[in-house]
């Protein structure tokens, strides 16, 4: 997956007063492909991008980022302990990493079972601290000893996090806000979040930040 700045590409075409049909005729790129590219609904191959950039006289590096990953966020949720969701989370992460995918795991449970499964010690740079401070999660990521897997660890102090969340503005969307910079960086293929076994405000935050539950 690559990132194409489709809005920038469209604006360059409009600035030059070139229609989509004219661009298709001049470059040989299918008209429907150009329409889909400009609305962000379609990926395309490098050859088509090179043709469009050459005709529009734009540096391809302005709009094309080949190492961008379309990061998806998955959370493991069950309001019952002992159901195996932490094992599932670590197992999926390990399997994906073995396939060469870049994975970030986030431990959202103060019991720290996911953190312990990756042999991670306690840290002041933990998920609860980031949520409480409403800080960009990029600064809380740590490497693990497993190739292609990074982690944001949990801490036992997260047991009281819900009480602090209730005092905050937009308290249901804090995790989505602080996770957004990680997603937009496009470094990871998947972010997997383990949750605590409660119907908590923190879990509601995590669900709001996820593509899949």
Task: Give a brief rundown of this model.
This protein is α/β, with parallel strands linked by helices and 213 residues long. It has helices at 6-15, 20-27, 31-38, 46-56, 85-98, 113-117, 127-133, 161-165, 174-185, 201-208, and strands spanning 3-4, 64-65, 72-76, 103-108, 142-143, 149-152, 190-195. Helices cover 41% and strands 13% of the residues.
Plain-language structure description:
Helix content is 41%, strand content 13%. It is of the alpha/beta class. The chain has two domains: 3-65, Orthogonal Bundle (434 Repressor (Amino-terminal Domain)); 72-208, Rossmann fold, CATH 3.40.50.300. Strands 3-7-4-6-5 form a five-stranded mixed β-sheet, with helices on both faces. A hairpin with a 5-residue loop joins strand 5 (142-143) and strand 6. It is elongated, with a radius of gyration of 21 Å.
């Amino acid at each position: 997956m690559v990132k194409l700045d489709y809005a920038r590409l469209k604006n360059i075409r409009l600035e030059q007063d070139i229609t989509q049909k004219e661009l298709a005729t001049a470059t040989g790129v299918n008209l429907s492909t150009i329409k889909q590219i400009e609305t962000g609904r379609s990926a395309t191959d490098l050859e088509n991008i090179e043709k469009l950039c050459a005709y529009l006289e734009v540096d391809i590096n302005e709009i094309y980022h080949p190492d961008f990953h379309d990061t998806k966020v998955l959370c493991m949720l069950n309001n019952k302990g002992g159901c195996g969701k932490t094992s599932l989370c670590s197992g999926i992460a390990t399997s994906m990493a073995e396939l060469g995918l870049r994975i970030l795991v986030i431990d959202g449970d103060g019991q720290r079972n996911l953190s312990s499964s990756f042999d991670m010690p306690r840290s002041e740079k933990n998920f609860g601290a980031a949520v409480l401070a409403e800080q960009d999660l990029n600064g809380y990521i740590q490497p693990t000893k497993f190739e292609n897997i990074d982690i944001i660890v949990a801490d036992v102090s997260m047991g009281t996090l819900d009480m602090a969340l209730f005092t905050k503005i937009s308290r249901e969307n804090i995790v989505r806000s602080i996770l957004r910079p990680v997603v937009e960086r496009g470094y990871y293929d998947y972010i997997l979040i383990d949750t605590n076994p409660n119907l908590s405000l923190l879990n509601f935050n995590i669900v709001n930040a996820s593509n899949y539950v």
